[in-house]
Amino acid sequence: MMADPGLAALLDPKSIAVVGASDDPTKIGGRLLRFLADYGFTGEVLPVNPTRDTVAGLPALRSAEHLPDGVDLAVVVTAAGAAREAVQACARRGVRACVVLSSGFGELDAEGERAQRELVATARAHGMRLLGPNCQGVANLASGAVTSFSSTFTNFGLRDGPVAIVSQSGAVAGMLAALQHQHATGLRYWVATGNEADVTVAELVDAVLDDPGVRVVQAYCEHLADVPRLVAAAAKARRLGKAVLMVKAGATEAGARAAGSHTGALAQPEAVVEAFLRRHGVVRARSLTELSGLSRVFETCAPARGNRVGIVSNSGGLGVMMADAALAEGLELAELTGGTREALRAVLPPFAAVGNPVDVTGQIVQQPHLLTRVLPALAADPWVDIVLVALGIVGPTYDIDAITDDIAALHAEAAARGVLVAAVSVGGRPELAERLAARGVPTFDDDSACVRAVARFAEHSAWLRRTPPPAAPAVAAPLPPGTGLLSEHASKELMVSWGLPVVSGRLVASPAAAAAVDLPYPLVVKLCSPAAAHKTELGAVRLGLTDARAVARAAAEVLAAGRTAGVEPIEGVRVERMVRGGVEVSVGATWDPVFGPTVLVGSGGVHVEVLRDFRLLIPPLDRAAVVDAVRSCAIHPLLTGARGAEPLDVDALVDLVLRFGERFAATGGALSEIDLNPVFVLSDGVVVADALVRVADPAREEP
Amino acid sequence: MMADPGLAALLDPKSIAVVGASDDPTKIGGRLLRFLADYGFTGEVLPVNPTRDTVAGLPALRSAEHLPDGVDLAVVVTAAGAAREAVQACARRGVRACVVLSSGFGELDAEGERAQRELVATARAHGMRLLGPNCQGVANLASGAVTSFSSTFTNFGLRDGPVAIVSQSGAVAGMLAALQHQHATGLRYWVATGNEADVTVAELVDAVLDDPGVRVVQAYCEHLADVPRLVAAAAKARRLGKAVLMVKAGATEAGARAAGSHTGALAQPEAVVEAFLRRHGVVRARSLTELSGLSRVFETCAPARGNRVGIVSNSGGLGVMMADAALAEGLELAELTGGTREALRAVLPPFAAVGNPVDVTGQIVQQPHLLTRVLPALAADPWVDIVLVALGIVGPTYDIDAITDDIAALHAEAAARGVLVAAVSVGGRPELAERLAARGVPTFDDDSACVRAVARFAEHSAWLRRTPPPAAPAVAAPLPPGTGLLSEHASKELMVSWGLPVVSGRLVASPAAAAAVDLPYPLVVKLCSPAAAHKTELGAVRLGLTDARAVARAAAEVLAAGRTAGVEPIEGVRVERMVRGGVEVSVGATWDPVFGPTVLVGSGGVHVEVLRDFRLLIPPLDRAAVVDAVRSCAIHPLLTGARGAEPLDVDALVDLVLRFGERFAATGGALSEIDLNPVFVLSDGVVVADALVRVADPAREEP
């Protein structure tokens, strides 16, 4: 089933050797044997123990050297020193995959790091895959192949289900499994990668998606390694209609530092991580509880056709709070049709609210099957894409079976039409939530958590509806010679060669030549030098020049200002048309050493980095993603005609970003940074008014 | 104990009449008697039933007319029609407080609204307080006086505790009680106010705070009514060291509309509500779960001395996630002293992280009292104000008693020093959380919820440390004559009379007079008319005039532009100095019909409403609140020297806002709106460059 036979052996072993096996279940080597028995593993188990003939009733081998040929999986639980020998022996015996639970390697010191590199070299030399070291192992809940010492497996009788948990941290993997168990759903795979000397989270995410039994991957990373494999995995998930959910910790500088202190990894720029995950449809959660809640929706629901919510509650107040939360999370409140309202009025008591949210009131106590009539009416409304059923305090006189039946029936029926149904029970009897969950309805005990999870799901559904961008359009992106910063004129010429709408201008050498430039007034004069990035601060810009004499004087002044400030080399003076009206935005790009090209769109002006009103995008870009990015900026209302102003040409801005992003990606890293700021968005078109290009130094950065 | 004897009788009745009493516990009148017995009410219970001699074994009265004198509380459970007679009878018999559970009043139609007004008139005529109608009643868990039909009281054996729940919605009050019960703490009072014909949430919040047994009030409102009483209650809470926590639903327009549909109340502007609650130290939650979590911290913790967090976890990953969350919520991560690090290094295994977060690793299994040594070291660090203990997966080999003892001991000891201790158990054994809660440690099952609650608590502690502003400083605020908009010149003259730093300028009638104005160049010329609020759009502004001839020409042009546009009346031309450099902000004020004066500070420019980069403040202002508001704006880094620019005079901006806010409040509503935009913040001082004042129309708005 899986492309890599080593990973297949790791995830679904038929034979397991335990190196360091013990009779004592309080020792790790004993606990593993106990887990294999308790979870019903029926494959071959081969205990290895240097002093015993049998362990836990099974014949034991004295050393890994005596393993039969081609064991699928060996688990090494000995101390670090012995682990090195064991790994060598396993590799020589043709073991397909080896889990090294032992610590004392890269996480400890430089010597451990060296030993760890040796383990990997040994494994690779023999084509054996290696999980860990310093990891909590792997489990397959379908076969019972539990080769982990996590106390998660002791605390809970975990069961098979549609989720794979793949985590750098064993403790986090354990918490996720516990949350999964609390919500009465199961998991197929559980893997904790530890030091990731060989097998990575990205590879495992990719591999577990091949299992038809897996619908959702819950991933935990502190550092995104193996980016191309993660991209491939995300594409596979999209193709197969599965979801990858992730907590990427270390989002803040302090968090990243803390993560670094126990994994040694470097901080990754948060805005780029965010853009990367969004680009590839990896759904991000901020806490394990949120991840678990998201998973409940993704495990049980078909993609939603839209983001318009209809809310039904037995508490007016709960309905209002959910409406507030829905709007705050980017969902819309459905405007019910007249027909729906009439249908609701016919079945609800006269004092009930038939708007949205619908308040069925305590009447549900008298009419246990009130939802039978209310829910289908709401879910049949063409404007309702998502039905949220919120129940507060379900007393002893509520007929829980009837309510469960009604909600579960709607959930099953509506899915085929792309209508999502989720439930909330706040402070109610626990049986209600349990029965709903057992019937496959995603159920929450907190209204805001429900709304948040559903909002992320609806965003993901929208992403699935979008046509994926072509892999990488073959475009030509002319490049300048040299390295380092280009002057404004050279930068703009490059952008012109890329087909971008740049303000017209000429490079001239003298005030007289400036005066002779044949462009319509008013004009702008700027000193032109690769060493004058911040011209305004230098006094090297003159705006609004309305005749030749003013242009000549301005040219002389900016040249003098440049010389006074010691600017060198001075290429001359750029004389260009002055752009007026519209709204200033900025468009930029940088080449990230890990993630490659990133494109920025945001508000313009000198303070874009300070105000942080921007969004990053990762090429190849699709139009919908760019539109979405522009919409997410605080300045967006200015572009669409705030304060009664005429709406501006947002389409042209989107075209510019698409074209710019394509070409920047096509440079393959030859340019390290471009800053187009400001770009004026006008009522008809856009125009780049300033540009700054930095060419990468090939000696420092691999293009 | 309470000022209002009617409210005292409502909240702590010694005698209770049940009008509509029944033997049948499935009926409301029977359920009430059952609750009174079950919850151990030992006062007098007087069933009223028109056809029975005894009810539930108690002698019954035929009618409320036969009640003895001065019964504390009567509960009316009959249909609406009979309820009106019952209320009249109760009022005549000198009942102190009456709870009308019956519906069919203001929530139904205009006739119900009339009937409701009658109830109130009857009650007021006899000095009787009235809760409801259409409410779920009131309960005192100390005395067992449960006069509510909420199934909350059936589902759970609620117990006495330090919380009062006061809610417009009965269902919400029920959910809050259930959450309180789930977290093993109790409540003293439970009140649902329903239609609030007489007794309001604000009054009840004020009243329950008088009870020494109440530490925290959990309030739910969809509309803030009775604002002065709420202000008084908040002041009382501050004085007594108690907290008022609130969910104010209807924060979005759609939410407010939904709330209005079942309470009839109007939407309240969210930014003003937010400012009001912040001003008065009312801690806001966005969901009931969040409210309940906040309550756990406020119930059990003394105010924190600061916001620097030290995190201890048995999972490195959990520690990293909490560090991320702490920074996102405005907390700081404490930088541990060298001494603390050394102390930690001495007790932790070599591979454990001794930075912050501290990772004690699974070593706690081998050393159950590891926290005994780690926690005091962390809590003794002078840089740690808050200790968060986060435990993920606590396996069967963990010594839960030892861990609980260690955390609870620290919680008790550290409180005296203003150090807050809270705990998180994610996916762990439920006993751990239960035992910690039983020992008074605020405990969460979600790391991000814990951090959020602790962050709000730390903010409240900071608010408590601030000196409250003087009630209302006695300042003179000169007022202009007339109504409606003032011209820019008149607006600026008013601001000068308030002592604000306004850019120097003169009002002149002609181009010649403009040319003669004796102010240093460059100058600005603007058309001056109360009808020309948007001068730039009119072409009625000229900037950067450097000599008398340019000034004269500009004056002629703007006058012509005004006449062409039909502007009338034209007061003349304002000639003023041109402000250069610095950063533009805006300062404004409006007089809200419910909340009174509100003051705005935010980014400047024409698009302040679009970009929404502002914060509202409610006078009287204190310096710390203004500083905090300025800091919360996205432009703040520009004021403090971003991009290596020199830092600007933020103190002068704060002074301006304080002076402006004082004077605006002193107008008593005579001015409806002021907009100072832009105000330039310079390296030395601030200057108001544009001003617009609107005088209230006394015919339309009561000053």
What does the model show?
- 2 copies of one chain form a homodimer.
- Chain A is α/β, with parallel strands linked by helices and 703 residues long.
- Chain A has 5 domains: 1-134, NAD(P)-binding Rossmann-like Domain (Rossmann fold, 3-Layer(aba) Sandwich); 150-300, Succinyl-CoA synthetase domains (Rossmann fold, 3-Layer(aba) Sandwich), CATH 3.40.50.261; 302-465, 3-Layer(aba) Sandwich (Rossmann fold), CATH 3.40.50; 504-577, ATP-grasp fold, A domain (Dna Ligase, domain 1, 2-Layer Sandwich), CATH 3.30.1490.20; 583-695, 2-Layer Sandwich (D-amino Acid Aminotransferase, Chain A, domain 1), CATH 3.30.470.
- Helix content of chain A is 39%, strand content 21%.
- The first copy, chain A, has 26 helices and 31 strands.
- In chain A, the strands form 6 sheets. Chain A has a 7-stranded mixed β-sheet with strand order 9-8-11-10-12-13-14, sandwiched between helices.
- The longest helix of chain A has 19 residues, at 447-465.
- The model of chain A has no long low-confidence stretch (mean pLDDT 91).
- At the A-B interface, helix 5, helix 6, helix 9, helix 11 and helix 12 of A face helix 5, helix 6, helix 9, helix 11 and helix 12 of B.
